[in-house]
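During the reporting period the student researcher (J.K.) took over the structure-prediction task from the postdoctoral fellow and processed the backlog of single-chain submissions. One of the processed entries is reproduced below for the supervisory committee.
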Amino acid sequence: MAEVYLRRLSRWQGEQQRAAVADLYVSAYRGAPGAEYRDRQGFLDRFERHVQGTGFDMVVAEAAGLVGCAYGFRVARTGEWWSDFRGQLPTDIEELTASGRTFLLAELMVLPAHRRLGVATLMGERLLARLDADLVVATVDEELPEEMDEMEGSGDGGRPENAARATLHAWGWSRLGVLGPHSGTNAREVWIRRPPR
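J.K. obtained the following structure tokens:
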């Protein structure tokens, strides 16, 4: 396998690479057959909003083309980000968000052929290495009930959200709770981590 190189992209460079990143997204997640256009367009719409986020930062992995990408931005100071949080949000989490010191890891994707080789870990470390935040958050689709998992034939944890959950857990993140659902989206598990100093 070719050597993988990591590169940090500015907001402007990220915008210039959006078509390639959208292609990576479709290849990394391989949605339902025939849904590639919808999946790609949905990603492009989200990416357009995300790249405008305060403190946007992005790392890509390349080996004769893009093989991975990780990016994020600061969570809004207003606290609206937590408005759909189920249950009582811990005061310290709310305060860190209100102070503008919370970073959202919005996307982390790696092509299937480059998974389990440490690419995601390297990108995550590079992205968070120079981060000036006191808390990092990530969201993952809420887990389906176990019987639904088995009905879909994926009780082995083969779904992307199971891999994301396992990766976050292995990296020392902890599950905080659940956001949503809202405006036509699924409920999302919230995972948190304090960045290394």
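The committee noted the following: The chain is about 35% helix and 25% strand.
J.K. will present the remaining backlog at the next meeting.
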